[in-house]
Write a structure and sequence with these properties.
single chain; 81% helix; 0% strand; elongated; mainly alpha
Length: 135
Amino acid sequence: MSPILVYIKWIMLVSGVLTTTVVYAAFAPAAALQSTFGEALDGPLANVIVRNWGALVGLMGVMLIYGAFDPASRPLALVTAGLSKAVFIGLVLWEGARYLDNQAAVSVVVDTVMIALFVWYLVAERQTRLASVRR
């Protein structure tokens, strides 16, 4: 059995907790932007957008935590959170090195590791399922 199949619950819990911490952007949007990107957006619309971003990313974290305890929902949670993380990584890298001197660089690295683990699990789980059907 692949080690990823054994440890996925803990991987999802840690990933979910780390991802959920972004919910603080819903409560302190200016501080979240400053710490993550080193820049600020001003005005009521910026607050709405950043608070929404924080809430949505926080929900991705909650979904990962839920999936850790509900194996049937794991594929949906991992694919959805993984795609969300891939979009974030792509958008940060699209800007070049502009945000890589801030917390965003750490997020890009950690999210990349999470995506790799998620893909590893999905592939290993599918191979295990197909092997059991062939028997």
